[in-house]
Write a structure and sequence with these properties.
Layout: E1 2-3, H1 12-15, H2 19-26, E2 32-33, E3 58-64, E4 67-75
Antiparallel strand pairs: 1-2, 3-4
């Protein structure tokens, strides 16, 4: 993971916030480039960050004993 260049807000969740609220929240945000396979949070650990995808998707993967990982959900820019 590396710091990315600033981008225009195109995440629809953030874009739907009132301008002042969005700007206040964005003061605490920083763009980040993710590579395929990057792990954002390990099993049984608390999330340390919140992610608002601008492009691409984030997969929620469940680990099941004696079974390959199962994709449980997808998170995009909505």
């Amino acid at each position: 993971m590396t710091a990315a260049a600033p981008v225009q807000v195109v995440n629809r969740l953030l874009g739907g916030l009132p301008r002042m609220t969005r700007n206040r929240l964005l003061e605490y945000c920083e763009p980040l480039d993710l590579d395929f396979g990057d792990i954002l949070c390990e099993r049984n650990q608390r999330f340390q960050h919140v992610y608002f995808p601008v492009t691409g998707i984030i997969s929620l993967v469940a680990m099941v004993k004696s079974h390959p990982p199962i994709e449980m959900g997808l998170i995009g820019n909505e």
